[in-house]
Specification:
This protein is of the alpha+beta class. It has helices at residues 16-19, 22-34, 47-57; strands spanning 11-14, 40-43, 64-67, 70-73. The relative contact order is 0.17.
Length: 78
């Protein structure tokens, strides 16, 4: 897509961990992290599970928490 002058697509995987087993999640994330996606957003209520899987696949990531109608980066205090 970049060769055609188009922006890389953004991918949203909402509540993915509720729908797939851990091995399938890891396989899917490995596939999409190797493709030409711009940003990939994951939603999951279990931050530890998300970090465990994502950290094993890539170091290019940031974690954000949605709380009280606002977003903050993980590690920051209100």
């Amino acid at each position: 897509m970049g060769k055609q002058g188009l922006a890389a697509p953004t991918l949203l995987l909402d509540d993915l961990f509720d729908k797939l087993d851990p091995k399938r999640i890891e396989n899917l994330l490995s596939i999409v992290s190797d493709r030409n996606f711009g940003q990939i957003f994951l939603t999951d209520p279990d931050m530890a599970r998300t970090k465990s899987i994502v950290d094993s696949i890539t170091s290019q990531r940031a974690y954000f928490i949605a709380e009280k109608g606002a977003f903050r980066e993980d590690g920051q205090t209100e």
